[in-house]
Design a protein that fits this description.
Aspartate Aminotransferase, domain 2; Aspartate Aminotransferase, domain 1; seven-stranded mixed sheet; 12 helices; binds pyridoxal-5'-phosphate
Length: 373
């Protein structure tokens, strides 16, 4: 059965950028230049200006963007094998994988039960003489408590690397990507700013770091035939950069639309303390609602009800990283009660910027018919 409201219809989203999207892509195809050309340079300049940073370096995806930042700090002698990175327990597995790929140890921090983001009060007991970096994630488009995280990090001399994969445009005083020493973005197609395939970027104000990240993502080379580092191949390509440049000018309007939909959900859904909650988001930090999460102890029943109604849903994420088979050996015996509760109760409802008022009303009516039953 076709959904009445899809969770996210990427075909519809990308069609809404036509004819510009296909025209720009066709020019790129005709140009004969597919890597390391003007389209990437242009997008990097545009995205750095959008985030408010001096530098942006395109990468192959968000996981590589995070990994390249950490590997670059290793090349610069600011991190070494075995150092500890504090990361949220409540995140997508990519945050942890980047740390492991860079030869560091991810130490998990519980989320605040209210916001779902890193609980700053849990940080100090996790800091050891091996801790070198904190990696907050702006989960679901909500800026992590960056002022408090920086206030904990700086006296210890810790680096702060933002995982901004879900938060393009979030933040009021400063945007996501401009708070830490460096930040990683993903342009996975479903993100608020999504490519037509994989893509990612690093933002930073640190010139030296930006040069090493760029070289490391290009086989360790910043000069043809000359390889200073044992790098990898992870570059944003010309076609993806072209698509992103077409889409970036509408990001703020799309985020505003997501926010308006979220306000309808917040005011019209029949919230119920023991059956249905959501996160408390501080509107003054300008959340961008990459995901609108519901939490219920009866999550599976709620999902089944919404499926019967023809409303698409997803879970972000049903199994937390420390419970994944891939990482089980590393976290044997570790329990993270808040993270695990989130994982068992989360259900995301549609929040595409292209939802109509009727579709939003339908989603609300379906959720309420379950709460009130
Ligand atoms: C929080 C977070 N970090 C990192 C990533 C990795 O991004 P990518 O899928 O582009 O590698 C994602 C992606 O999907 C994510 O949600």
């Amino acid at each position: 059965m076709k959904n009445v409201v899809d969770y996210l219809n990427l075909q519809q989203i990308n069609a809404s950028f036509e004819p510009q999207l296909t025209q720009a892509m066709a020019c790129c195809v005709a140009s004969g230049r597919y890597l390391q050309g003007e389209a990437v340079t242009r997008f990097e300049r545009q995205f750095a200006a959008y985030c408010g940073t001096d530098y942006c370096i395109g990468t192959g995806n968000g996981l590589d963007a995070l990994t390249l930042i950490l590997l670059s700090y290793r090349e610069l002698g600011m991190l070494k094998e075995g150092d500890e990175a504090i990361v949220p327990g409540n995140t997508y597995i990519a945050t942890l994988l980047s740390v492991i790929r860079a030869g560091l140890k991810p130490v998990l921090c519980e989320p605040s039960p209210l916001t779902g983001n890193m609980d700053v009060d849990c940080l100090p007991p996790l800091i050891t003489d091996k801790t070198r970096v904190i990696i907050p994630v702006h989960l679901y488009g909500n800026l992590a408590d960056m002022e408090s995280i920086l206030a904990v990090a700086r006296p210890h001399g810790l680096l702060v690397v933002e995982d901004a994969a879900q938060a393009h445009g979030a933040g009021a005083l400063k945007r996501a990507g401009a708070w830490g020493d460096a930040a990683a973005f993903s342009f996975y197609p479903a993100k608020n700013l999504g490519a037509l395939g994989d893509g990612g970027a690093v933002t930073t104000n640190d010139l030296q770091l930006s040069k090493v990240v760029r070289a490391l993502g290009n086989y360790g080379s910043s000069q043809k035939y000359h390889h200073r580092f044992q790098g990898i191949n992870s570059r944003l390509d010309e076609l993806q950069a072209t698509a992103l440049s077409v889409k970036l000018p509408r990001l703020d309007a799309d985020n505003a639309r997501r926010s308006a939909i979220a306000q309808r959900y917040l005011s019209e859904i029949h919230w119920h303390p023991s059956r249905l909650r959501t996160l408390s988001t501080d509107l003054s930090t300008h959340p961008v609602y990459h995901v609108f999460p519901l939490f219920s102890p009866y999550r599976d029943a709620l999902q089944a009800h919404l499926t019967r109604c023809g409303v698409g849903t997803l879970m972000h994420y049903p199994v937390p990283p420390h419970r994944q088979p891939a990482l089980q050996a590393m976290y044997e015996g570790l329990t993270l009660p808040v993270t695990e509760l989130f994982a068992s109760e989360e259900l995301s409802i549609p929040i595409s910027p292209l939802l109509t008022e009727e579709e939003i009303s339908y989603v609300i009516a379906c959720v309420n018919s379950w709460v009130d039953a």
